Fold Nitrogenase iron-molybdenum cofactor biosynthesis protein NifE.
Amino acid sequence: MDTQKISLLEGREKQVYEKTAGGVEVDIACDKTSLSGSVSQRACVFCGSRVVLYPVADAIHIVHGPIGCAAYTWDIRGAVSSGPELHRLSFSTDLQEMDVIYGGEKKLYKSLIELIDQYQPNAAFIYSTCIIGLIGDDIDAVCKKVAKEKGIPVLPVHSEGFKGTKKDGYKAACMALMKLIGQGSTEGISKYSINILGEFNLAGEAWIIREYYEKMGIEVVATMTGDGRIDDIRRSHGASLNVVQCSGSMTTLAKEMEEKYGIPYIRVSYFGFEDMSKSLYDVAQHFPERPDIMEKAKEIVRDEIRKYYPEMQKFKAALAGKKAAIYVGGAFKTFSLIKALRTIGMSVVLAGSQTGNKQDYKNLKEMCDEGTVIVDDSNPVELSKFVLEKEADLLIGGVKERPIAFKLGVGFCDHNHERKIPLAGFIGMYYFAKEVYESVMSPVWQFAPRKGGAK
């Protein structure tokens, strides 16, 4: 593959930036809809809302629309539950041609009644898809009617795919959660309490994080939405602090809760030794009247790093000088990955996200080394171009980026939805480093020379 022949699509130039010494500083264009024809790696509004709400395990999730929308988003997160698993079931009203002509409200009502009777959920989320926005079904009225009849929250999620970007789906999900928050009793909640926002319990990560905070003496009221429970969400307004991990998806909810209930929030990351440690210290600093909380945080950090540091040095010795390309959903995750890769001796030659804002990209420019390409809302052609040009040894992304890496003959690490091994927390950093080491140093690459490299 001749990378000289791979060019950026017209209209994409302002969303790509290469950091150079003495180069002209420009603002990266972002917060815009994907360019037509770019085959964006970014998902639609509906998918954005679905991935945020999906891990709520004791609710039923009904996709109002054609069967394809439900099939596309079924079980796309490795979100695990410590109890009920209703989220693992994917329900759809399966609209057909006659439903589109005459409307699907009756079908939605009948589906809701049948599913609630059969599964006895604590709530129901109804996702409106593109076709619903076109035919004009009043899902709010249907939800209100069923909620009154069945006595549980039935929450419309206005997530028509064509309405905007994946970030608009996040906002729709947050608005649905706000209808639950404040409906439960806050009796018995400790003054030293938090909600964990933007943690989706992939491979049990929420349990790891919750354990750290509980060892510090902090009560975790609700995790939104990993291993989520409706009753916990309803009483989450009683917490003293919101701790936002996935800033792209949950900052809207944190701001809404701050405005309505006066709960402050902080942004954190649980990836890598540096950011995981900081996330514990930042929470402890919020409760200065309890110095024992900070002391316990320091003890956890000291013990955990002591446990994994020797192995990390072995990985670093082998990986020193290797190069990685990063393309993930949220920019905050990109920051953590850059720091984590530096811990094991690797440099970053491509850094991008689907949902970053101007401040995120400004911070990214400051963090990255010279020669690093920074991209917003990329596509397969661009990713292939930069992975080849920068001679990356590893691509870190999600399920849609995996085929790109394998076709180009480079290692791959899934840092998004589908993974089965936790990458958050101190133990997660060890697993991450081990996976990167095994991927980059695998002997298989001698039999799969780079496209455009040795023949």
Observations:
- The longest strand covers residues 193-199.
- Residues 451-455 have pLDDT under 50 and may be disordered.
